[in-house]
Amino acid sequence: TVTSSAVVGSSAISSSGSLASAMATITFLPFILTGAIGTLTALDFLGFGLPPGSPSLGELVAQGKSNLQAPWLGISAFTVLALMLSLLVFIGEAARDAFDPRK
């Protein structure tokens, strides 16, 4: 209203409005990162990602597949991927709950 803008100031009202619209992007960011990591891992595993010899999760999965006599390679690749993607999803859920304006 007019009286609240006169008391608080128009810059405070406009910054709170832009902060509220930016929260949707901030809370969705961990889910975007999860998809990007999964896509990059899949592309690296198929040979379409980073150049050969570059350290990546897809290269680790491919080495685990090619060296089945060493099961710790595949188990470590799966563990790293599962933990990292799960933690990113949990961080995203926590951020979305923390910044939920309906609470």
If you had to describe this structure to a student in words, what would you say it looks like?
It is a single chain. This protein is mainly α and 103 residues long. The protein contains four helices and no strands. It has helices at 2-8, 10-46, 57-66, 71-98. The radius of gyration is 22 Å and the shape is elongated. The two termini are 24 Å apart. The model has no long low-confidence stretch (mean pLDDT 82).
Task: Report a brief summary of the structure.
The protein has 4 helices and no strands.
How many strands, what sense, and barrel or not for the largest sheet? Answer: none
Uncertain spans: none
What is the N-to-C order of secondary-structure elements (H for helix, E for strand)?
Answer: HHHH
- Tell me how many strands there are: 0
**Rough shape?**
elongated
Which quaternary structure do these chains form?
Answer: single chain
The N- and C-terminal alpha carbons lie at a distance of 24 Å
The portion of residues assigned to helices is: over 70%
Radius of gyration: 22 Å
Structural class based on helices, strands and sheet pairing:
mainly alpha
- Our count of helices gives 4
